[in-house]
Design goal:
Layout lengths: L13 H6 L8 E4 L4 H4 L4 H4 L8 E4 L2 E4 L9 E5 L2 E9 L4 E6 L5 H18 L14 H11 L1
Antiparallel strand pairs: 1-4, 2-3, 4-5, 5-6
Amino acid sequence: MESDSFRLLLEEDVDEFRKFRRPTRPQYSLVSSLDAIQTLRRDMLGLLDKKDQERPVFAERSLQPAGRLSDLPSHAIMDRGCLVGLWEYDMETQTIAYSCFGSVDKALTKEIKKTETYVREQLGDARSFSLDSPTSRAPRIQALRAATS
């Protein structure tokens, strides 16, 4: 693209890139906290809308501003490249506990149910890291449920 740009793009892809327009309808994805959209960059500010940068989220043992974290405290709910919520799988109830930064619409509810079914029937659990367990994630689940009630 531009000679002083940090972006890498093949010359034959430049026109297609410039034509791209962000979809107007939400496109939700529930992804792992280890998903490459965040872990390869470790740039929470780049994933958050400005209005959500100071949003308190439960990380470690306390609430912290989302924009000041370097890693996701829970799995991510993404919409068109932006972090719009967090989720955890609750083994006890076999459901997804989540907190969304905005309103929850039918499309998001559908994606949550789809992911919940997939985790329950295909994976059995959705751990954040190797030592994650239903017991260790209980405080995160409680915080997510408290944030949505």
